[in-house]
Specification:
disordered C terminus; mainly alpha; three-stranded antiparallel β-sheet
Length: about 100
Amino acid sequence: MESWVESISWVKDNPENCSEIFIKANDHFRSSKKNGLILFDALDRVSDNWERYDLHGLLWQQLCNASGEGGDILRNYYREVMGIYPPKKDDYLTYSGLVLD
């Protein structure tokens, strides 16, 4: 794709193809017995009013507070990189001192 606008338009116009790309990537990592993390860069360009949303907090909530093996892997990776387990308050891991629920 030549530009960000073209990329977004393609994803909007081709949701099935986009989904297939993610499924193939997931299958590839599973068959290789590896884990992968797909990061979405430039989320601020997706919406004109992105300031209303705490995108980092939303990602933290979905990824670090995820149940099951996926959440465990990310929390352990956080611990390896940061040297500490992600901070926790009550039953939620916290991000920037805020409790996400």
